[in-house]
Batch of 3 targets.
Target 1
Amino acid sequence: MFCLSVVKDTMAIHPSNFGAPVEDALIAEINKNTPIAVLHDVGLCICVFDITQAGEGKVRYGDGFLWYKVVFRLVVFRPFTSEVIIAKVKSSDEDGIRLTLGFFDDLFIPVSYLLNPPHSTQTNAPHFWIPDSTLTTATELLDTPLTERMYIDQGEVVRVRVEADEFCDDEPGPIKVSEGVVQAKREGKRPNYNDLRCSIAEQGLGPVAWWSGASQEGEGEEMDEG
């Protein structure tokens, strides 16, 4: 889920921080701008792991800052394909289930990656699963007794498998003029790291409570046989 990425950059130290050790000042400066930033095709930056190289600080004319050429390693969030992770259900709709990790909210389970048979497709309703059911349509599923349904509710802790991720690099929108003021059009801008698509379409995936309960029942049966 987390990995290290080597980054080369030029960092500036403000005069107010000249008294601090150089490495501490550089780490503080990097961490000030790095967390929750996205490196395209790399991942979501979390924090500095360490600094591997720092050149000699140089003053540029006109600003008084000390500028350093730095090589450092970042802790980056980017799960690999087929990795199994734990997340929480944030919301549900007819398209699927959106999940959150607390610091990252762009995990999504499309309907095609839910357990079969299909779940409920009602707008904003929690999806559910009926084990060993032969029903195939939403109408049939919605006619089933509530006691037979295993719901995936908001806030539920789920185990999912990562299927794919996507980075986007949206260009700024076209410039428009409103009442004589030039404004950039921002409508429809997507997150730089979005649609981390996940699946629960196999045994052992889905709400953790489902499988924890099944495991406890299996252990109980073994003890009774003993």
Target 2
Amino acid sequence: MSGYKLFYFPVRGAGEKCRLAFAAAKIDYEDIRLPAEEWLKVKASGRPPLGQMPFIVTPEGKILAQSGTIMKYICKKGGLCPADSFDEATADMISDGVVDLIQQLIKIYYEKDETKKEELKKEFYGTTLPPRLEKFEALLKNRDEGKGFFLGEKLSYADITFFDFFNSFHAKGKEDVPGELEKFPLLVEHYKRVLNVPEINEWVKKRPVTEF
């Protein structure tokens, strides 16, 4: 299948899990990276349904926005969405749990008061992230003792969301396992497992190097 177009800035950011989903789903697409001045023109056209990126245009010309929605849509097209309704809800829960963490990091990033920024970082990495990782590891262990993916033997969008968060925000797009995971051996192996999915590994190796 081909003919999809993904519009986003020339960075990993919120668009990267969509790119990872396209790769994992083996769906061809055009990776359109718009600099700020070009984005303003596209935004002014009214084409993006919510006035923001990322958004995709399907081969039929339909337009869809919101990174999580796009990722799930592509994964469903590529057979990477759980068939069982409760498993799908669990994948949503895990993905939403990661989004909670992303929103907190974004808040820290935009904090202008350096003293407060350091306090927020200390709180996030000291008291917020570790307990959440314990919960994620427990969810992973619930399926085959953590030897596979979050929903079993098959990769899903929950795994892509989790991997992208740690790869983009903490490993800075490199293949290294982030230090934040080192106390959680099952999550370390999960990170490696997702990275070693051939299509994902190929994309990580060849994608443009960006700061974030």
Target 3
Amino acid sequence: MDNLSPLRHLIQSHPLIDNHAHNLLNRESATDHDNYPLEAISTSAHGRALENALTTLPSLRAISQLSELYGTPCADWNDIKSAHDRSVREDYDGLIRKSLEGTHALLLDDYLSDDEDIEPSTWHDSFTVSATKRIVQVEALAESTILDVSNARKNGESVWNNFRQRFQDALGSALDDPNVVAFKSEVCCRTGLDVYPYSSDDTTLGGSLIRILDSGTTRSGFDVDDKGICDWIVQQTLKAITFKKKAGVVKPLLFHTGLGDKRVNLAKANPACLQPLIAQYADADIVLLHAGYPYTREAGYLASVYPNVYVDLGKVFPMVSREAQVKVLRECLELAPANRLLWSTDGRLHPESFWLANRQFRQALETVLVDYVQHGDFTASQAMKIAADVLFYNSNRLYSLNLTPSYTPAE
């Protein structure tokens, strides 16, 4: 056995904590490819753009690797969908267990859990060692609060004061809920990451809320897409997190950054836009999701100079090419402290999205760390600590999970 075998073994087999993912479809909906296209597991494209995405390197690589998962040769996505449908019909639970193999715990952004096609968070518990924990999306929380305000709207009542109090109460309840370990903001997809550190006056915010109420209905719902309101939601969440941290309760705020669908204004998806906000709320822990791609260096830089910033490495696996995945890891390690790097799949809907992400991440991590050891940048023992921290211990500490992995080192 060469001296790198223990490192390779650890990277490929150490249990992991998936620090950001989404709920799976139920069995009946898992084969509904019209509404939940399986091809989307390797791209953020939708509609006609999804047809073009089938010719990308990530999509072609997914076909090759998923053939291994199903144990049958697949030449294209039609073959993949046939194999998927057969697996769902014959043993959906088995497909999920195989896809989540090695996953100790899931932290689920479960904003779609009210959808009848989606399994609830607790349902996922039977497929992991430890119980699933929840991540609350704050814009979705605001939209449900606005719906409540709309239903309770009365003449002469201050709609803004009503909404503000209800939203702050909802935040407080989530902070007190032991099953909630973090919050997430989608402000990147709504108005951009250039979040102003200070809120507008109540008159301005009240006017913005009225416009949101007037543009939606109780049946269609209300879209929080006003910059003033979106910024305020993020500010209030960070204030509440900071206050609660003084009492010893640590629950970070995760930001969607970089990689996303066509809703994202790419120029405003750069995590560098968050720098004034990060500096203003220095006591609130902040996680930059998706490695900030394609602004990975900026994300790593922020983690290197602000002790409250972490970089999540998810979503680029499996949505960019193999070379790009290796580059992402290298760029993160250029400056970012290894104890500020977290792993997630950003898996959703189909179990294969988890399997591909975990498999490709372990492959890229092995490529990068083995290369650094061979070039003398650090020792194999140091590389093993980095790998175990990224896969498990960094998330375990940040989210105060207090979990213990079951791992047997290579002999």
